[in-house]
Amino acid sequence: MSLKQRLLAFVAILLVVVITVLAILSYQRMRTEIIEGVRHELDAAMQGSRSALGNWLAQRKDAVEATASALVSSGDILPQLQEGKTAGRFDQLFAGYADKRMIYHLAEKHAPEGYDPTSRPWYKQAASAGSGIVTEPYVFASTKKLGVTVAYPVLRNQQLQGVVGGDISLEGIISLVQGIKLRGDGYAFLATRNGKIVAHPAADSALKPVADVMPGLDAALLQQADEHGKLEELEVGGALA
User: What are the pLDDT digits (tens) for 65-106?
Assistant: First the structure.
């Protein structure tokens, strides 16, 4: 091989190496910019949604607490429940008492025969906590809608008299989450801390374990992501996410 041919071969190899290095550097820079863009997009979506959800929930808890306080000082239950229902925009507001009475904001509504409010999760949780609570999402028996109950104990002289509870559908929150638009094939979903789906694009996914809807993701990973706020690459349902 002549000197000229050797020089040409060397230059060609050098060009290939330079082009390869530039391509790698360009890819890495592009990848970093895309990841940072996704991170900022996710942060904005999560912070906005978390703020909206926090305000939404705080208003309901304040309304239930105010109603519970009013019932301690007033013997007229129905007007207080009606006012609290309107203030908190609940589907229904009610008071369950230790003597097993159940009173709704609607005068004509009555509990089913044999109904014991003291055995219900919302009553037990509020009575045990001694303060306001929010139940896990569940399907309301009357409307078949997914919702939660916000409850607060009625205490007189530190003695439990009963619990005020307000049912509210999660339809608005679900619509908010499903309306979040992310780049590419991205989507937002909402789950409880114990890994139950609340809102997800997949049909009939409500209250299913997150691992059933998105294999590769579970409650522990959700809690870890919530605590650390780090962007993680996972294989979910056979695809990288």
Answer: 999 999 887 668 899 999 999 999 999 999 999 999 999 999
Could you tell me if 184 and 219 lie in one domain? yes
Q: Are residues 137 and 73 in the same domain?
A: yes
Q: State the average pLDDT for the chain.
A: 83
**CA dist., res. 176 & res. 199, Å (int):** 9
CA 99 to chain centre: 34
Distance, in Å, from the CA atom of 89 to the CA atom of 91, rounded to the nearest integer, reads 7
Between 74 and 34, name the one with better pLDDT.
74
pTM score: 0.74
Tell me: do 70 and 144 sit in the same domain.
Answer: yes
Q: Residues 68, 144: one domain?
A: yes
CATH of the domain at 145: 3.30.450.20
Show the beta-strand stretches assigned E in the chain.
Answer: 92-97, 102-104, 133-134, 138-139, 146-156, 159-169, 190-191, 197-199, 235-236, 239-240
Better pLDDT: 131 or 22: 131
Distance, C-alpha 89 to centroid of its chain: 19
For residue 90, give its domain range.
57-169
